[in-house]
Design goal:
511 residues; 7-stranded mixed beta sheet; Thrombin, subunit H; 4 domains; 10 helices; alpha+beta; 6-stranded antiparallel beta barrel; Pdz3 Domain
Length: 511
């Protein structure tokens, strides 16, 4: 009797062992994810989802709930009178509400015939978003949302408030408003936009198309974008794929801690979910002046500058493409008084390295008028120290701007046609008398200068720092360069109206 029992016991052990081995093998082959039991078909979809690891993904609901009470919508109204007392008929465009025409009001709707507007007057409305930054009612929005407004109203929660404009800065497209709510308000803290990284999660919240407090999420797509829509010297946009639409302008871009890292400002009309925000550190730099003076005063050098690329750096004798290349020095400016010249490379300011134009612009602007800064300049291979006493930046100028006889050439590799500047040529094209150089008549598609932005109608004024006042000068310098050497051409663009000169450097290498 004991033998059959033993056999049964052994058989049972073998069965148990086989089952255990099968489970281990299945787990090793990932037939069933470790630690997860496949949901039974009898479960509801909700029950199955609850049992899934997806339940551990973060939700933005708490963040949205915390931020929402500090978000406002803004309506800016402009009352204007048309010449002759009547305005021209105009087709209504619903998007006009969200984008005020900077050349003047472009109102939808019918002409006002009476009431507060009066005969010959009409009203233009613009809308946008904003956010509260202090419990006593300071509100941030974009300057373009309230530009030229006769009155501004802020909608917060379930109430409307009349707002006063405390300060504006068109250069950065920022405006500071103030409302009196009679109570302490929920506000947003300002974060650190320099600390955010490409790929970080962000939330945009605002009032697109009058859809109150709409939340969208995404990531930081890029940093340091320049679009040329405001003052290019101060553009340093954050790019995000969090959806930004008409009416989001002035609303916050917040990080996962609920801190503002950007101010929604612009969208790319031809793309989907490519939006741009002013970095919050830009706001933090100018906020004290907006509070105290209502405007921003900036230090001013009076130069146009550009960044270096690898080949340009080599042409100027630098190991790395760092520094700010001076393209132009305005007459009578602090930089001109200090002896700064076009072709100089600014390597440092007050001992701080200048790796890009942004470093110089930000530092000089923050110093303010009447301050003195020391520039370390590279000129003809030598390092110089130049002390510059700053002045206040004029309204329409930049503290240091980022740029924006005909015959066949004897220099075949340039694929360029050019001629001397003549009197009739100057008169026809509005070329100022003080401009000397070689007039470019055609740039071939194979020319290395084409990729450098040189075009017909430009004037080549210098090559490697040597003035070229004639075709003979130009060809002598070019033909005298050794094989493999870099050539730095100082090129002038002449505006067709007004004769404004825009200089830039084109760098090519002799074959």
């Amino acid at each position: 009797m004991s033998i059959p029992r033993s056999r049964n016991f052994v058989t049972a052990l073998l069965v148990v062992g086989a089952v255990a081995f099968g489970m281990v093998l299945a787990g090793g082959l990932e037939m069933t994810a470790p630690g997860i039991t496949a949901p039974e078909l009898s479960l509801s979809a909700t029950q199955a989802a609850t049992a899934s690891p997806l339940r551990n993904l973060p939700s933005f609901a708490d963040l949205a709930e915390a931020v929402e009470p500090a978000i406002v919508s803004i309506q800016a109204a402009t009352i204007a009178r048309t010449p002759g007392g009547r305005r021209q008929p105009q087709q209504f465009d619903p998007f006009d509400f969200f984008f005020r025409d900077r050349r003047g009001p472009q109102p939808p709707g019918e002409e006002e015939e009476g009431g507060e507007g009066g005969p010959g007057e009409f009203r233009s409305d613009a809308g946008g978003s904003g956010f509260v930054i202090s419990s006593d009612g300071l509100v941030i929005t974009n300057y373009h949302v309230i530009e030229g407004a006769s009155s501004v109203r802020v909608h917060l929660g379930d109430r409307d408030y009349t707002a006063t404009i405390r300060g504006t800065d068109p250069a950065t497209d920022i405006a500071l408003l103030k409302i009196d709510a009679g109570r302490g308000l929920r506000f947003l803290e300002l974060g650190d936009s320099d600390g955010v990284r490409v790929g970080d999660w962000v939330m945009a919240i605002g009032n697109p198309l009058n859809l109150d407090k709409t939340v969208t999420t995404g990531v930081i797509s890029a940093k340091g974008r320049s679009l040329g829509i405001n003052d290019i010297s101060f553009e340093n946009f954050i790019q995000t794929d969090a959806a930004i639409n008409f009416g989001n302008s002035g609303g916050p871009l917040v990080n996962m801690q609920g801190e503002v890292v950007g101010i929604a400002t612009a969208i790319n009309w031809g793309a989907e979910n490519i939006g741009f925000a002013v970095p919050v550190n830009t706001l933090k730099e100018i906020l004290p002046q907006l509070r105290e003076k209502g405007k921003v005063s900036r230090g001013y050098l009076g130069i146009e500058i550009g960044n270096l690329d690898y080949e340009s750096a080599q042409a100027f004798g630098l190991d790395k493409p760092e520094g700010a290349l001076v393209g132009r020095v305005e007459d009578g400016t602090p930089a001109a008084d200090a002896g700064i010249r076009h072709g100089d490379i600014i390597l440092a300011v007050d001992g701080r390295p200048v790796k890009t134009t942004r470093d110089l612009i930000t530092y000089v602007s923050a110093k303010g008028p009447d301050a003195t800064v020391t520039l370390e300049v590279l000129r003809d291979g030598k390092r110089l120290q130049k002390d510059v006493k700053l002045r206040e930046r004029p309204g329409g100028e930049q503290a240091a701007e980022e740029r924006p006889q005909e015959r066949d050439s004897r220099i075949d590799w340039l694929a360029l046609e050019y001629q001397d500047l003549s009197g009739p040529l100057r008169q026809t094209h509005g070329i100022p008398e003080e401009v000397d150089g070689v007039w470019v008549t055609e740039v071939g598609p194979t020319s290395p200068l084409y990729e450098e932005g040189v075009r017909a109608g430009n004037v080549i004024a210098e090559v490697n720092g040597q003035e070229v006042k004639s075709v003979a000068d130009f060809e002598r310098v070019i033909e005298g360069a050794r094989s493999g050497a870099f050539l730095r051409l100082y090129v002038l663009r002449i505006a067709p109206r007004g004769g404004r000169v825009q200089p830039f450097f084109a760098v090519v290498r002799v074959p």
